[in-house]
Amino acid sequence: MRWLKDMDDKAFEGLARVYTGTWARRHERELRAACEAARAALAQTPPDRADEPLDAVLSLVESMCNSEQDFCTQFFFLDIDVKGESGEAEGGERGEARRAGAETRRFMCELFPALEAELVALVAHRGADRCVADRLAALPDAVKQAAKKPKCGLLSFLQELEELSGACERIFVSSGRRADLDRWYVSLASAMLQAVQHAEHPRTPRAVLHMENYHRLHAVLSALRVPALEALRRECRARYSDALRAYVTQYFGRPLEKLTQFFEGVAEAVAQGVREDEVCYRAAFSKHELRRVLAMYPAHEVRKSLHRLYRTVEKHLSEEGGLLQVVWRAMQEEFIAQHVALQARIAACYPAAGLALPLTTQHILDAFSDIAREH
Questions:
Q1: What angle do CA 318, 321, 327 make, to 5 degrees?
Q2: pLDDT-based confidence at residue 87 (cuts at 50, 70, 90)
Q3: Which letter does DSSP use for residue 319 in this model?
Q4: Per-residue model confidence (pLDDT) at position 151
């Protein structure tokens, strides 16, 4: 081989290419198999022993690289510069050493073209596994920290999930690690779902805490567009809707309470067999009594109560949650539903009596819009 290197540089380079090409494929298969085995081991290894699979791969890489470097240096005479021996080298021994080092690096790059990519992916995988474990362990602390704030707002781990998922997608987008990514996402999202469920705050209503955080978690999972998260997305959406409904029911209540109670009595009478158009002949449900109850709710008083309600909602909800107008619209829909039901009962039980609720549906829509703009 020394003679070939001295006499026929083209033939020498051709033989070197055959060698590096053949062995590069073999090393790539061996390295990929080792990395796959390490990733599989990482998924089942306890956190305190998670470095062992990575160490095994690094030991294998070190052995492979050292063996190839020693063999190639000796077989291909990489430490000998033919031109340098002829007296044409520049820089003496230092220049010869640089050329030998460059030649060795070239051989190693050709023999292990996928080495860097495989190791980066494996180390990133190990880092992501550790990061996920750390995030899971930190969930209780995030809930405790939120309890110290004036309002709960969004729990900090939701933004961390958003940032972590973005980083993971960039790192692993072309690494074939989709199954690992999905496993991490499901693990984190499931734990966060339970953390929100059990979180409490001394000043924020539980329904608001749930509503804001389930809403944001649903948005983060939806942005990922990962099929494995579909069930968790649906669960987040359902819990958010339940929390919104619970909050509206609890804090909106029945703004026309006495009027609602009046018609509950009317409904009981009808259920007992009294015809709707004859209910008004009973003293407790007479037209006079209905007029008296309706007079308790002049339009300006209803508007005042809505203003107070808006301030309460504004006090409960956080700015970062971004749900104030969503909640206000839900309360508007609830008021209109109650209004329509009461108006229908008046029309059925007191026809042609000229009685009506103090606000029309349009008045209610205008009142809710005006209050939202004023604040």
A1: 85
A2: very low
A3: T
A4: 93
